[in-house]
Specification:
The protein is of the alpha+beta class and 169 residues long. It has one domain. It has a 4-stranded mixed sheet with strand order 1-2-4-3, covered by helices on one side. Helix 4 crosses helix 5. The longest helix is centred in the middle third of the chain and has 17 residues. The protein is globular. It starts with 20 loop residues before the first strand and ends with a helix. The chain binds zinc ion (ZN). Zinc ion (ZN) binds next to helix 4 and helix 6.
């Protein structure tokens, strides 16, 4: 079954706004990544760590389960999840983890929330798993380039724009 991005109206929100989240201090990590991301993205993105519970699954999961889709990735088992400009992490940040999530923030900014969410779900359903989602492939690819050579600067915004122009998401 193939899904079009517009077939699914999905929302990405923190499913549990009552979660006790604290702001993580990541200044030194961000400093090392400053050359890859736009300054306004680095200034406005918030990084939060839940203190007690783990984050729950998003609200659109119930809709997908009604369609018979039951193998969706469990948010509570993920290392980190990005909601637009908020990164929630279940573990302390490494350079690689933060870079990966900041690529998702750029993707959200370029695509818009609804489109990002629809493309994410479509990628999952069409590919059959988390690692087949083009938004993830893009984030892992750029993160891999950064980790392989942190001195070799490139613009994540330009790379994400290229993928959008080539309709790769
Ligand atoms: Zn990811």
């Amino acid at each position: 079954m193939q899904f079009g991005a517009r077939d699914l109206e999905v929302r990405v929100v923190n499913p549990n706004p009552a979660l006790d989240l604290v702001q993580e201090t990541i200044g030194e990590l961000v400093f090392r990544q400053a050359g890859f991301f736009r300054l306004d993205l680095l200034e406005t993105t918030r990084v939060l760590v839940p203190q007690n519970e783990r984050i729950g699954n998003p609200t659109f999961y119930s809709m997908l389960e009604d369609l018979g889709i039951s193998n969706l990735p469990d948010f509570s088992q993920m290392t980190a999840i990005t909601f637009q400009d908020v990164v929630v992490s279940h573990e302390p940040f490494s350079d690689g983890l933060l870079f990966h999530e900041l690529v998702h923030v750029e993707q959200y900014r370029r695509l818009g929330i609804a489109n990002f969410a629809a493309l994410y779900v479509r990628g999952f359903l069409n590919g059959g798993g988390y690692h087949d989602i083009p938004l993830e492939i893009n984030a892992y690819h750029l993160g891999g380039c950064f980790e392989a050579d942190p001195a070799n600067l490139f613009s994540v915004a330009d790379e994400v724009s290229k993928w959008i122009a080539q309709d790769r998401f």
